[in-house]
Amino acid sequence: MSFDTAIVARSLPLLAQGAATTILLVAAALVIGSVLGVVACFGRMLRRGLFFWLCSTYVYVMRGIPEMLVMFWIYYCAPLVLDMRLSPVASAITAMSLYSGAALAEIFRAGIDAVPRGQTEAARALGIPELRIWAEIIVPQAFRITIPAILGVVTLVVKVSGLASTLSVGELVYQATIISGQSYRYFEMFTAVGIFYLIIIYPLSFMAQTYEHRLSRRTQ
User: Quick check: pTM over 0.85?
Assistant: First the structure.
């Protein structure tokens, strides 16, 4: 089996366009997912009440259902409920946002719980306003603790973005599928896609591992 580098070179503009679309999907999903994650995190921390149960249900459902099923349900089934159809791009971003939001909610909650209670109790005893306690004590420490896990979610969302090709969103996998279907060079195209994903994902994984190693050394 020969590897035709010429077809890869000719396809680079389309693959680069698909990679750009992938990055835009991931960026939009992470921004929206971060907002959902913060809201769900604080809802889960209430421990009781209607809002707590709504946030808990959201987290458990999103973490228990396959990402592709969520994407398909939003695109094909939501119109039956909402009487409106989202575009393929909007459906993909919505599904990816819901998925990342549920994962980030648990990460944020774990980070907040990891902050020593003695610090917040001492700050409250000194009469420091609650908003300052969160802004200057809890959030900075929780964020530092959760950076590796957050980068892990970013990596997962990049991988999940490939499912958007099933809705004909012109991201990386979709472009490779179209090109390989026309040229019958599946080996070259999907090998190139794998390399593109490695270029995107490996730096994130490396940063997460490096930061986690430094964090473990500081806590020893």
Answer: yes
